[in-house]
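Title: [Solved] Methyltransferase domain-containing protein 3D structure

Original question kept below for reference.
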Amino acid sequence: MVEQARERAIEEGLEEKVAFQIADTLELPFEESTFDAVIGESVLAFIEDKSRALSELVRVTKSQGYVGFNECSWIKTPPSSLAKYIFDVLGAVFLTPDEWHGIWKRTGLKEVTMKSYKVRALEQWGYEFRGLELREYFGAWYRFVRLLFTSPGCRRWARKTLSMPRNIFAAFKYFGYGIYVGKK
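Solution (posted by the thread starter after getting help):
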């Protein structure tokens, strides 16, 4: 993703104005109050200690600055088998809006705004597909098939993925995303 971001910065003529850095969300390599705004998408769902991660993101935000995230969420509590499947396949723990609300409230941020949205399977697939060039799309499938033949880890993951609940599209009754913003 960082490489794609660098390429896009070059395409947009912004390579001299932006910097990309990989860091551990639980221990960011920045001084307190460094940024006017900290934003992210689909990050916190993959971090076990969500409260600690969010506190670290608040730490590096300037006073009067904003922290905002778009995160995968359960719109309503899913069956435990579905939550387990998502964890096994993606390594993610999604929260309900109420669970997210509790974590955000404990950060000390002011003016916390939260909005949840339901995801529709076909719309989501179409959105993701439109964001790719055909070369990228087929290239990803090519790499995946190649890894199926060369990587035992990839084969294990594929077997887990194929052990999906009977009606995986029923997951979209529970699945959505939330936009969460707060002011320091």
